[in-house]
Design a protein that fits this description.
Blueprint: H1 7-16, E1 23-27, E2 51-52, E3 56-59, E4 69-77, E5 91-95, E6 107-110, E7 114-117, E8 120-123, E9 133-134, H2 155-163, E10 168-172, E11 176-181, E12 186-187, E13 198-199, H3 202-212, E14 216-219, H4 227-237, E15 242-246, H5 255-263, E16 267-270, E17 275-276, E18 282-286, E19 289-294, H6 298-316, E20 327-331, E21 342-351, E22 357-361, H7 370-375, E23 378-382, E24 394-399
Parallel strand pairs: 4-5, 11-14, 11-15, 12-13, 15-19, 17-21, 20-22
Antiparallel strand pairs: 1-10, 2-9, 3-5, 3-6, 4-8, 7-8, 16-18, 18-19, 20-24, 21-22, 21-23, 23-24
Helix pairs in contact: 1-6, 3-6, 4-5
């Protein structure tokens, strides 16, 4: 039997099989969470001219060498309006936040530092040139491209794009991911559960992950252990950007799924990797169709989805598709030597006042226990053949709180 594929080798093979999907144009109002395909250029300069940042009076600083000094009020410049004459020596204009500076003005004195008597405005604090003024282009200039290709747009980015006078943005099309659970033993949540059946959670979990990572999930009905039915489901699922299969058959993981894939001409890239949980991972391809077979065990499904499904989605969104990153943490307890498989140990992560992290593995690591996964805030990553380690040693962990998509 050939040796098991390492996590990194399997990850490299998966992401090499995907490329960025075509772009589509959408309303800026719908762009939050989408990935930019084209860097948009600002269609105007913001602010378009020098504006007041406060309510007060605009003046020439040279006219008020010392306070108090009295100037003549000659007009006003509200937001959305303007004083369309050049200031003459000794003149001032009432100005409001967002109002454009009159020609010749170079300073603002706030309302609280003045005294008004009709058209006589006494300046109680000498102005400084440039104070309380938002210079033209302070935010951005026409033609600027502050949002880069490949950026996942936040609500802040959407606000910026709207301010740049962009009604439309070019983004990557969402990857369409079909999800197929197989097995006579599975029932959907809420359905009667037979004596030898279990509630299917993996498909629902994967659909939520796909949606959170920027894809569009298509959740198929559960396929019973029937070769013809599984073949037809695979044929339908392969029409999407990616087909995820979950589990195989009661007699062995992926037995019927593998046979169905081979019958339709799919080439099997790999189907076993050296990791825990998640050894029976499968990847197959045919022309432009890609199939990622995740273990049916729910915890294994979730771990493998993070390591292989998310990078595949990232690649289709025009991003690098890197393996999930780790951070250093201090072990809270001793751990035994690891075996030949890279282990993703469900753990609790705590942070001290100085920012240092401490990781505590859960005492039970059964890969069927979703309650332990739900309680976990980290994966302690133990390389294959990692030696026994003592409490206090530094190890690498995946901080689940820092992951996107609500993992």
């Amino acid at each position: 039997m050939s040796p098991l594929l390492s996590v990194r080798d399997a990850h490299a093979r998966v992401i090499a099989a995907f490329e960025a999907l075509p772009a589509e144009t959408i309303s800026v109002a719908d762009a939050a969470g989408r990935v930019l395909a084209v860097a948009p250029a600002a269609r105007l300069t913001q602010p378009p001219s020098d504006l007041s940042a406060m309510d007060g009076y605009a003046m020439r600083a040279a006219d008020v060498p010392a306070a108090p000094t009295t100037l003549k009020l000659v007009g006003q410049a509200p937001a959305g309006g303007s004083y369309d004459h050049a200031l003459k020596p000794g003149e001032t204009v009432r100005i409001f936040t967002g109002g454009p500076l009159p020609t010749g003005a170079d300073a603002i004195v706030i309302q609280e530092d003045t005294k008004a008597e009709g058209d006589r405005i006494t300046i109680l604090e000498a102005p400084r040139p440039g104070r309380h003024i938002r210079k033209a282009g302070l935010d951005f200039a026409a033609g600027d491209q502050p949002l880069a290709v490949g950026r996942t747009l936040t609500t802040r980015d959407v606000a910026l794009a709207a301010a740049m006078n962009l009604p439309w943005l070019s983004v990557r099309r969402k990857p369409r991911v079909a999800i197929l659970s197989t097995g006579d033993e599975l029932v959907l949540p809420g359905e009667p559960v037979g004596r030898n059946q279990i509630v299917s959670s993996s498909g629902i979990a994967v659909a939520a992950l796909v949606r959170g990572w920027g894809g569009e999930p298509i959740l198929f009905d559960i396929a019973r252990d029937d070769a013809g039915l599984i073949e037809s489901c695979i044929a339908a699922g392969a029409q999407h950007d990616l087909l995820i299969t979950l589990g195989g058959a009661s007699v062995g993981d992926h037995d019927l799924v593998q046979d169905a894939l081979k019958a339709q001409g799919f080439a099997m890239d790999f189907w076993r990797i050296a990791m825990r949980p998640g050894k029976p991972l499968m990847f197959a391809a045919k022309d432009r169709a890609r199939v990622l077979g995740l273990p049916g065990n729910p915890v294994s499904t979730m771990v493998c989805a993070l390591l292989f499904l998310k990078p595949a989605i990232d690649r289709m969104l025009g991003q690098p598709g890197d393996l999930v990153g780790t951070v250093p943490a201090r072990l809270a307890v001793d751990v035994k030597m690891n075996d030949t498989r890279e282990d993703y140990v469900r753990s609790a992560l705590s942070r001290a006042a100085d920012g240092t992290l401490t990781v505590t593995p859960h005492p039970v690591q059964d890969s069927s226990m979703l309650s332990v996964l739900a309680e976990s805030s980290a994966f302690l990553v133990r390389p294959a053949h990692d030696p026994a380690r003592k409490a206090g040693e530094i190890v690498q962990v995946v901080d689940l709180a820092g992951l996107p998509g609500g993992y």
